[in-house]
Amino acid sequence: MGAVDRRTFLKMVGAPAVAAALPLDLSKALAIPANRRTGTVADVEHVIFLMQENRSFDHYFGTLRGVRGFADPHPVRLPSGTTVWHQPGGPGGTELLPFRPQVPDLGRTFLPDPPHGWTDGHAAWNEGRYDRWVPNKGVTTMTYHTRGDLPYQYALADAFTVCDNYFCSLMGPTDPNRYHMWTGWVGNDGSGGGPVITNAEAGYDWSTYPERLERAGISWKVYQDIGVGLTAAGFWGWTEDPYIGNYGDNSLLYFHQYQNAAPGTPLADKAKTGTNILPLGRDPEALLSDFRADVEHDRLPAVSWIVAPEAYSEHPNWEPDYGAWYVSQVIDILAAHPRVWSRMALFITYDEDGGFFDHLVPPTPPQSRAQGQSTVPTTNEIFPGDAGHPAGPYGLGVRVPMIIVSPWTRGGWVNSQLFDHTSMIRFLEARFAGNRPDLIETNITQWRRAVVGDLTGAFDFTDPNRSLPIVLPGTDDFKPADLIRHDDQIPVPPADQRLPHQERGVRPARSLPYELHADAAATGDTLTVTFRNTGAATTVLQARSAAAAEAPRSFTLAQGTTLTDSWAAGSGYDLSVHGPNGFFRQFRGTPGAPDVTVRTGYQAHPAGLALTVINPGRDIVQVTIADGYTSRQITMMLRGGKSTRRQWDLSRTHGWYDLTVTVDGVTKRYAGHVEDGSDSISDPLMGGLV
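The structure assignment produced for this chain is given below.
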């Protein structure tokens, strides 16, 4: 191969081709049947959480095949009228689109660290308008990667399950998001030193989930390096040397009960111990030696959290390749031991977006009646503001990656149910709580517990052993060689901006618990929209008016509930409704135009959709219905006071639909996916197959 090293070769030929030439072969491990003792979540005996740092979903996976990325057919529109991709505030006052810096390998680039705090995060969110990213984060916010930059991360997503509707918990920095993972909230009610929306690390007293595990006799442990000491004098593992320690990311150590725990007690022995690689020349291979030993000797606890040193955490400006190497070590250790592999679930996610742009507006509770409605109490979900920070919803925060590695999640699936960091606690509840009420985390608010799932829907516990073996790219060349800090490499936006290309194709998709409706009627000067949830899970819908003065509104609907709201329509109307997994409605009308009432009905087995069109007026109207998947259209004349019902068989599109109803001056669009309880595929329109 001459002077071309393996990393360069991998990038030259692409990850799929190099997999055969330079494999990390997991076929032996994946040939091991999953532990199928009960066919339920109880078969998972080892739950492992590896939370990395500061990357948004689009920043990493916006170009990945079969996820809701840059090819999203229904992105939200900004007050300017452009789509969310066209962020204002770029160089010279121009709009800035997502861009890949012109470097040979962005996976080996030390990007600057954009702002990612409470104030700049809420300013970018802008009460849901979502149009202030660049002024508050800088141009680096709009950068993105491709498969060529992140071959290992993309291969993991192709081999296992990626969640493309997983959000961090809070619009803000690291610690508050990690508090959600470990405790369920940030002391929202003001007790125990909360609420905490910054990395203050002042010392807190509310309860944590590991304490519940300890009381229940369920084994747990935090795997980390001690740095210069897991004490106050050692800054609880944070150190200026980025290749040792835990980067201060073991946020349990900011709680007094852990700080004051003496050696020999459970909280100290399980949260305040770790490797010590400083005397070993900071050897990267010495990291995770305690994790390796526990796996090798079959003493891995029921629940584990893994915390990386700064350089391996993927926090900017650290290159993603260092993190890929670290993650690969965890997977290699597990894959080398069949008994553990067959019983474990590894969750790989990121604590927050790090200031990097993502195009999905986070679901949030309404702060006031003017900003929407909720059928679920939103108590303790709105920060009241303080001298240095504006009021606003705690979350959800920005969408971040989540990949679940396990014998129950293999096969390159996507799951599009709404999740956040508290979903990891919910998974532990699903696995261990049973009839033990103390294992139900009471810190999780009623609103959050209702709207986010518990991650079990990403697993196939019934028939887990049907997937094909996989091969992952090697990561030996990703390991840092010099163990020094590196200067920022400032990205420069291209002069000729274009929307990024997303990989063509689809991937298998898990079934979802959603069945949603949004119907609109224009009467006089008012547009009234009725939202209904006939599904099995609480859902958040967002309604956005094209009128720049109108702020977006958020509607939380519990199962079986209905909400109604109205918008001024005297000068016409243009309203869009967005929900999970591509649910989209758009209602447009000009003043005085004849309105028609449209109602949707869903059918399962085979998946189908029915539209009932009603003409409430006296005059005959011409109705046209266009199908975005087949390019076919139907035109009919509908008498006043009459209705017609038309049905579409969606078997060919695996439940996906995009229908536009047009009457003179009025357009109503209905798009999304019909759920029938069966697994499906990702959107073929988004995959470029239509």
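Interim note for the steering committee: Confidence is low (pLDDT under 50) at residues 1-23. The chain is about 15% helix and 20% strand.
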